[in-house]
Amino acid sequence: MSNAPVRKIIHIDMDAFYASVEQRDAPELRGRPVAVGYAAARGVVAAASYEARTFGVRSALPSVTALRRCPELVFVRPRFDVYKAVSQQIHAIFAEFTELIQPLSLDEAYLDVTANRRGIDTAWATAKHIRARILEETGLTASAGISYNKFLAKLASDQRKPNGQFAVTPEMGAAWVETLPVSRFHGVGPVTAAKMKRLGIETGADLRDKPLDFLRAHFGSAAEWYHAIARGLDERPVNPSRERKSSGSETTFDRDLTEPAEIEAGVLRMADDVWGWCDKAQAFGRTVTVKVKFADFRQITRSRSFATVVQTQEALRAASRELIGLVLPPEKGIRLVGVTVSNFEADTGPAEALPLFGAEDAA
Question: pTM for the whole thing?
Answer without folding.
Answer: 0.72
